[in-house]
Design brief:
Blueprint (H helix, E strand, L loop, with lengths): L7 E5 L6 H13 L3 E6 L4 E3 L5 E3 L2 E2 L10 E4 L3 H8 L2 H12 L4 E4 L3 H6 L7 E2 L6 H6 L3 E2 L4 E4 L2 E4 L5 H14 L4
Parallel strand pairs: 1-2, 1-6, 2-5, 6-7, 7-11, 8-9
Antiparallel strand pairs: 3-4, 10-11
Helix pairs in contact: 1-6
Length: about 180
C-alpha cells in the first residue's frame, strides 16, 4: 500500500451510515499513515445502522476542505439522505471537487455528490438503486467493483471494500487530480 504520512482525510457522515463503510476505509487510511477525522452535522457521536458508534471530531458547518487532503463518503441510506439535505455537508463535499482533491464514495454516498452537482461527465458506480439518479445528473454509471475517474473512487457495497480501500489509499497518495 502507498504511504499516506502527513495526509489528513475527512470522513463525512451522520447517523445511519453503513458501519463497515466507515470502519474499513478508516482503518485502511490510518494504517497507511493518514490522520482521519470524522466530520458531521451531528453532535457528539454518530451511530451506524448496525450500532457502531464513533465520536464526531468536527461539525461540518465549521469544517474547511482546504484543511484536508481527501474526502471519504460512506454509504447507508439514512446517512446519505440526511447529508444530501444538509447545505453545509453538500458544500463541504463540493469543495473537494473544486480543489481537484481525491474523493472516495461508496454505496448510497453518491447521493451527496448528485446534490453537489459534481458528477456530470464522470464515470462511477454505486448501489444499483442510484443508477438512474446518477445518470439523470449527467454521470455514466457502471456496475463494477471499483471505478476511478480523475481521483474519484466509487464502489457499490460493503462486498467491494477491499478494492475500494486499496484504490482510496492509492488516489490519496497521488494527491490532486487536474
Amino acid at each position: 500500500m502507498a504511504e499516506l504520512d502527513g495526509k489528513k482525510v475527512a470522513f463525512l457522515l451522520t447517523d445511519g451510515f453503513e458501519d463497515s463503510e466507515l470502519t474499513s476505509p478508516w482503518g485502511a487510511v490510518t494504517d497507511a499513515g493518514a490522520q482521519a477525522r470524522l466530520i458531521s452535522p451531528a453532535d457528539g457521536t454518530v451511530t451506524g445502522k448496525n450500532g457502531h458508534e464513533q465520536k464526531v471530531d468536527q461539525d461540518v458547518a465549521d469544517a474547511d476542505a482546504s484543511d484536508f487532503d481527501a474526502l471519504v463518503l460512506p454509504g447507508g441510506v439514512v446517512n446519505a439522505d440526511h447529508l444530501r439535505m444538509d447545505q453545509d455537508a453538500v458544500a463541504f463535499a463540493k469543495a473537494f471537487f473544486d480543489a481537484s482533491k481525491p474523493v472516495s464514495v461508496i454505496c448510497h454516498g453518491a447521493w451527496v455528490l448528485v446534490e453537489a452537482d459534481v458528477v456530470k461527465g464522470r464515470t462511477l458506480t454505486s448501489y444499483p438503486s442510484l443508477r438512474t439518479d446518477l445518470r439523470n445528473a449527467g454521470a455514466t454509471w457502471v456496475d463494477q467493483q471499483v471505478t476511478v475517474d480523475h481521483g474519484l473512487v466509487s464502489s457499490r457495497t460493503p462486498d467491494d471494500l477491499p478494492a475500494f480501500n486499496a484504490k482510496t489509499v492509492e488516489e490519496i497518495a497521488e494527491g490532486r487530480h487536474g
